[in-house]
Amino acid sequence: MASISRIGKYTVVRELGQGAHSTIQLIRRMEDAREYALKIVEIDGKDDQKFLEQVQHEMRVASMLDHPNLIKLLCLEQEKDWRFRVKKVHVLIEYVNGKTLDQLPAMAMSKLVDKFLQISAGLAHMHRRGVFHADLKPNNIMMTKAGAIKILDFGLAWIKGEPKERVQGTPEYMAPETARAKVVNERSDIYNFGATMYRLTTWKLPPSVFGGLSSAVVGKSSFKSLYEEVCKVAPTVPAELGQLIDQCMKYDPNERPERMSEITARLQDVQELVGEPEEET
């Protein structure tokens, strides 16, 4: 993609990242010097229509949400050719000055529990609005330099009551029922969150829901034999937190906590044990 110095009323500061069919630029609004992220999606033909539909879906999901721990998508603009076909999409996004959780070093337990509480608050808001993230994992969660959490990427999010067009995910973070039967709900998000907490407390990947080179979903007994409890992998993790993570990652969704509010309450109990984190500067 050619270098761009200006887009409408915005000055391009630098490139933040690239995907297969998109580029994200850091831009600055000229009138007040406020910074934003701009996602630019190229639509080159019929095969790229799915990328247009995905950003439209992300925008619609974001418009249903309003929470400090969820990334804000502010507006979507389309560029069309002379035949009125969409050729390019611009998505204006809240700029988050920070890194995703998979890019950060290990944190003190008090700080990590604080981040888990922020994630649970963001997910609880989504669930109250009838939206399920369906792809929560460390590289879809950013932490600002001030320590605030922002959950990203609503591309696979499912709105309750709507048909499921795509059900995908990362094998180590995907709930078994999602992989097996395309089930996405509060308890599948709870599994995703449990897998995320497992990774960030033990520094090990949770077991994949797919067996080896096969695309078949592992059964309950196989999964149980593969899963190592938090207390065995990371003995320094508080027992109450380890037990919560283990429960969130139960193969049977009925054995997991039913609501994010229950997880939040239990994380608050853990926070009382480990203490409040030091203020971040």
From TrEMBL:
InterPro entries: Kinase-like_dom_sf, Prot_kinase_dom, Protein_kinase_ATP_BS, Ser/Thr_kinase_AS, Ser_Thr_kinase. One of its GO terms (cellular component) is cytoplasm. Gene3D superfamilies: Phosphorylase Kinase, domain 1 (3.30.200.20), Transferase(Phosphotransferase) domain 1 (1.10.510.10). The keyword Transmembrane helix does not apply. SUPFAM superfamilies: Protein kinase-like (PK-like). One of its GO terms (molecular function) is ATP binding. It comes from the Bacteria. It holds the Pfam family Pkinase. Residues 10-274 form the Protein kinase domain. Keywords: ATP-binding, Kinase, Nucleotide-binding, Serine/threonine-protein kinase, Transferase. ATP binds at residue 39. PANTHER family: MITOGEN-ACTIVATED KINASE KINASE KINASE (PTHR24361), NUCLEAR RECEPTOR-BINDING PROTEIN-RELATED (PTHR24361:SF613). This is Serine/threonine protein kinase.
